[in-house]
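Repro case for the chain-ordering regression, as requested:
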Amino acid sequence: MRLILLGPPGAGKGTIAKGIAEELRIPQISTGDILRKAIKQGTPLGKQAQKYMDRGELVPDPVIIGVLKERVAQLDCTNGFILDGYPRTVPQAVALDHAGIEIDKVLNFVVTDQTIIKRIVGRLTCKECGAIYHVKTIVPKVAGKCDHCGGALYKREDEQKETVRKRLRVYKKQTAPLIAFYRKKGILVDIDAEGTPEEHLAAVKRVLGK
Ligand code: AMP
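-- result from build under test --
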């Protein structure tokens, strides 16, 4: 199965992607995680992407389209994948069509700006595996350490309040048009992304018939 998780930053896509990737035994592909890893490793891609990411802007389409095509061509994607954070613009979606990569379902996470700001501002991410925590709602068992791999938890540079507001503006302008794009294709399903991660996961499993 080939899935796209669509929604503003902080809608809970990453957490859900990890949950259903395990259930469906297909990889979660987070372009944000790929870029953060490239920055950490100091690769040419990382150097190119960092300035956009720190400003809360999108990395240019030609760069990210290349990254995505290379990733989905890998062997572990033979039975499908979950795209988390791609596509983020209409040209990125058209690039999937042109590459003959057919998508089965697009899950559109619907949530208010107010909820998003509350969530992202308290968020902590694992440096090693990308797992997501929250100072109030998803508290790690040991403070500052990932429950899954023991990696250090940190606050992302682009998760400060002003940058989050900017990312929301970017989402509305550049990414939200994808809702109409995929609704027209008849493969988009809305998911209520208020509430808890457990409730979102249950809603997604219902939609996927799991
Ligand atoms: P995320 O972890 O998905 O919230 O992504 C963090 C940042 O990485 C975004 O704010 C963008 O700067 C960049 N990024 C991730 N995925 C994409 C994409 N598909 N297109 C452009 N920029 C991206």
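Ordering looks correct now. The chain is about 50% helix and 15% strand.
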